Amino acid sequence: MTSTNPAAPPTVLRGVPVVAGVRCAQVIRPVRMPVSDGPAADLAETLRPAEAARCTAAAAAVAARLRERATRATGAAAQVLAAHATLAQDRAWLAAIDNRITAGAPAVRAVAEATQEFAEMLTKLGAPMAERVTDLYDIRDRVLAELCGISEPVVPQPDQPSILCARDLAPADAAELDPARIIGLATTLGGPTSHTAIIARELGIACVVAVAGLDEVPAGAMVLLDGSAGTITVGPDPAQIATAPAGHDAGAWIGPGATADGHPVALLANLQDAPAAGAGGAEGVGLLRTELCFLGRDVEPTVDEQAELYGRVLTAFAGRTVVIRTLDAGSDKPLGFVGHPVEPNPALGIRGIRTAWRHPGLLERQLEAVAVAARDTGQRPWVMAPMIATVDEAKSFAALARSLGLSPGVMVEVPAAALLADRILDHVDFLSVGTNDLAQYAMAADRMSADLSALTDPWQPAVLALVGMAARAGRAAGKPVGVCGEAAADPLLAAVLVGLGVTSLSMAPAAIPAVGAQLARVTEAQCRAAADAVLAATTSVGARAAARAAMGE
Ligand code: PEP
Ligand code: MG
After folding, report:
1. Active site residue 195
2. I want to staple 73 with a disulfide (CB 3.0 to 4.6 A). Which of 78, 209, 295, 486 is the partner?
3. Counting atoms of ligand 1 from 1, which one is nearest the CA of 291?
4. Of the residues 195, 248, 340, 427, which is catalytic?
5. Count of C-beta atoms within a 10 Å radius of residue 252
6. Which of 272, 413, 443 to mutate to test the pocket of ligand 1 (most atoms within 8 A of CB)?
7. Quick one: which ligand is closest to 438's CA?
């Protein structure tokens, strides 16, 4: 049982660290309105068409408001809100509501029942579809609010800086967080690559997910959140608050990325659009997730449309490295215009580079658009393919990219690619390690599962051994090997990756200053010692402790 009594000793809850930073504040919790079943009696037949129209209008109003919020947001928040808006217009869900109203149910009951049916169906399908249940409930609550003429649920906007604790956050809620008021975020569910985690990272909000026991911490409790250790201390004593480590806050770091003894490490941004400003001092773009640019689209964007987008990113980072990843469609990022087959295991199915087999011309048109953008802007973008598993895949991607004058690289997300990194590097100019998927595939654990987040922890020594293997191959070939998975945004782990021989780190822009500050505090030799210590560890917890000790923390 969690203690919130000030006289009781502090209780430490453990979760998965996502965004570094130590924060102490009172807990607030999102307020969701209770969902009513609506009137029990069926509607008279004459009233049903008007009730159905009222419901359709309510869903359309919710979708329009979310789309409008998407146009005012930037980055991941904008993409997530736009995708959320399409859910409010999901044809199958709306049809299920309509059928119920036609059979006599009032709109409120029809929405609640249809949502329940869909939620149960999604839950049975397992991850990643089950992840959408939170989204669906959020849409339901918004439509019910619209039908009842009350305001939509909102994330509380506290007067005091607070720590938001929630079971899970709907994307629309996560996108709404104000980092000046919400200084820490903790969720019971979610994994290190969930929407909540991605947005927290982008906003620079210290964050821990998959926290066991968090549901019992009430609003108003004082907690100390440590986003590096992945802990929530409930009722910390005053000495703990006073001596709380400064975390990995950036202080006066101004870049460029380098260790204390001057070993350069390019710190790059993960983006899905041209940035509105600065991008956290990024020295370039290490990962443009092009599939996120086109979420919710049913028609393939034209070469010209794609070229315009890529051109904007190239112009924003003129003269600097820009790595454009070709569409990583499928699994957790399905695209309407790609038309994915129904597969029992989408994460092991046709995703990433494999979609090119089923859709001749899709990859060629995308690379052509990059080539057009390169010509129009006079820049030299790098292109990289996701989900490469064989040397032949890397070879044919490289040949295609080179035929268009582009510099090719591939992602190392499948353990097979790490194991054969030396032979893949015979064909490509660079590698970029995607630790999110590499952890998923190395540990045979779904990256979206909160229950398995200890396995998908990038501190797992087996995952880091694979990263080390890719980095060694890069050093031998004299070619760059970066990391663009979420691991790069963890300051302590970033230093370990440098010790493993990684040459660049790409992350959400908000994470760059803290990573830059951490690297500036340690020497390359300390990073190497930490890497050796981590590779000798047998658990992720042991790896973290060994890295801290090796770096004198
Ligand atoms: C990764 O797998 O680490 C990666 C960067 O790709 P994504 O998260 O987009 O799958
Ligand atoms: Mg990936």
Report:
1. yes
2. 78
3. 9
4. 195
5. 7
6. 413
7. 1
Task: Quick: pLDDT tens for 53-80.
Answer: 999 999 999 999 888 887 777 666 777 7
Q: In the numeric block, which tokens belong to residue 213?
A: 């026991």
Nearest residue to 114 via CA among 138, 140, 132: 140
**Distance in Å, CA 123 to ligand 2 centroid:** 23
* Burial call 116-125: b when 16+ CB within 10 Å, e when fewer: eebbeebeee
Nearest ligand 1 atom to alpha carbon 485: 3
CA atoms within 13 A on the CB side of 130: 14
> What residue type is 337 in one-letter code?
F
User: How do residues 208-256 score in pLDDT, each as one tens digit?
Assistant: 998 999 999 998 899 999 887 889 999 887 766 665 543 445 556 777 9
CB-based contacts of 67-74 (< 8 A; 24+ apart in sequence) = 69/172, 69/175, 69/176, 73/175, 74/273, 74/275, 74/276
pLDDT, residue 336, reads 82
Tokens of 256: 């460029």
Question: What's residue 38's pLDDT?
Answer: 63
CA 270 to ligand 1 centroid distance, Å: 10
Name 506's bridge partners: 268
Q: From start to end of 146-298, where are the E strands?
A: 162-166, 182-187, 206-209, 222-226, 231-234, 266-271, 284-289
- Which tokens go with 217? 């911490």
Spacing, Cα 88 to ligand 1 middle (Å): 27
Q: If residue 467 lies in a helix (H) or strand (E), which one and from where to where? A: helix 461-477
Q: Which residues line ligand 1 (CB under 6 A)?
A: 193, 287, 289, 328, 413, 434-437, 484-485
Q: Structure tokens of 394?
A: 């890397």
Residues 436, 503: Cα–Cα separation, whole Å: 18
CA–CA distances in Å: residue 121 to residues 93, 118, 133, 170: 12, 5, 9, 19
Ligand 1 center–CA 258 separation, angstroms: 24
Residue whose CA is at the smallest distance from ligand 1 atom 8: 436
Q: How far is the CA of 177 from the centre of ligand 1 (A)?
A: 24
Q: Counting atoms of ligand 1 from 1, which one is nearest the CA of 484?
A: 5
Q: Quick one: which atom of ligand 1 is closest to the CA of 435? A: 3
Largest interatomic CA distance in the chain = 79
The number of the ligand nearest the C-alpha atom of 432 reads 1
Active site residue 340: no
pLDDT, tens only, 358-376: 888 999 999 999 999 999 9
* Pick from 507, 20, 19, 514: nearest CA to 271: 507
